[in-house]
Amino acid sequence: MEGARKIEDLIYYQVSEYKMRHGEGIHLYDADGRAYIDCASGTFNLSLGYGHPEIVKAMREQADLLVHATSTFRTEPVDRLVRRLVAVSPPNLTRVHLKVSGGATANEGAVKMAQVRTGRREVITLFRSHHGQTVLTTAMSGEAFRRAPFPTLVAGITHVPDPYCLRCFYRQSPDSCGLLCAERINDFIDHASSGSVACIVVEPVSGSGGNIVPPDGYLAALRRICDERGIVLVFDEVQTGIGRTGHMFAADHFGVRPDIITTAKGLGGSGAQVAAILTSEELAGLDGEYHSFTYGGNVLAAAAADKTLEIVSRPEFLAHVRAVGAHLMERLRDLATRYPRIGDVRGLGLMIGLELVDRDGRPDTPLTLHLAHRGMDHGLILRTSRYGRGNVLKIRPPLVITTEEADLLCDRLETLFAAEAT
Ligand SMILES: Cc1ncc(COP(=O)(O)O)c(C=O)c1O
């Protein structure tokens, strides 16, 4: 009888001591009714917050009709979602692949498409990147600790330095570096890869790696290198997509057109499991049987995603994200003037990172973890970069956060810093 054993001994992975019961907007409530502002939007996926009423209604109505049909059949929600995804994507992305189960399998599909299109094998990704946790995407992600336990890795992935200006790999400064971090990719292709590079996969703003916003011109330089060498440029917008940066996609903000965008997380609005690969016509050509997952194109999730896109497409919605994001950024920069342990405040829209440093300006991961832990006592759910191995607190509340709620979040952060990080 399993009832006698503690739940912690039955669940394979570690769970926190907090037991949550319900959520509404930016708040998650525990079993005792205590409210926490979720600064991480769940796993950065609740773009519209907990239980958005329009999403819940769309899912309820769809559940009454049809929860699932195999994705070879057409259904109304999937038809609507496909049309809407094409309408909101950069104009060169006109094809939608929905038969994926999340961000990782979307990224794997993008790699397969690039391989089929180019006839080449290899992949280039950035230091500190995170692209998922399947075997291929574990190998693609730019962190040694994620790969460390596994004896078998996928060959043919070259990791290159990321555009982290604050701690530049090449010890340069952004005003005079000539974008070495982009230009040197040519050397990596010529000397570190086999030369058979199918695609470069990049998060336009690093999500897990530390909320690193690339300098002006970086993504455009990647576009040029890809064009010169016939390489497919993939933007992993699993975190940056669906309004997070104040634009539907970060590609719109940077004015760079990738050949493929992968999207997941925020597409589900209030937590529906849905993901997509958006491609140009030239990338169409991977037959259905080569990349297809049972819950891809799920009808219930499609109803949620379609409604999410409808809401995020409303003209006032992205303006709201930009305005609240700017307000939050201003308040956090102000906070940094009083608390020198905040070494950098950076981000776009509602995707913000606070980099924490010790008294000598070096990354302070223990302090970052401590603050995230103690945040719960102050009614804040905080997550850190690089699965607790990094020194960045991620401030990415649901996009529906109001200015007053953003102020409350900052007030609580100030109390937390005053108590724990002077
Ligand atoms: C940028 C990025 N890509 C891909 C993934 C993987 O997505 P999923 O967990 O849905 O497979 C994540 C998840 O954290 C992510 O942050």
Automatic annotation (TrEMBL):
Keywords: Aminotransferase, Pyridoxal phosphate, Transferase. It comes from the Bacteria. Pfam families: Aminotran_3. One of its GO terms (molecular function) is pyridoxal phosphate binding. SUPFAM superfamilies: PLP-dependent transferases (SSF53383). Its cofactor is pyridoxal 5'-phosphate. InterPro entries: Aminotrans_3, Aminotrans_3_PPA_site, Class-III_PLP-dep_AT, PyrdxlP-dep_Trfase, PyrdxlP-dep_Trfase_major, PyrdxlP-dep_Trfase_small. Belongs to the class-III pyridoxal-phosphate-dependent aminotransferase family. This is 4-aminobutyrate aminotransferase. It comes from Kitasatospora griseola. The lineage of its organism: Bacteria, Bacillati, Actinomycetota, Actinomycetes, Kitasatosporales.
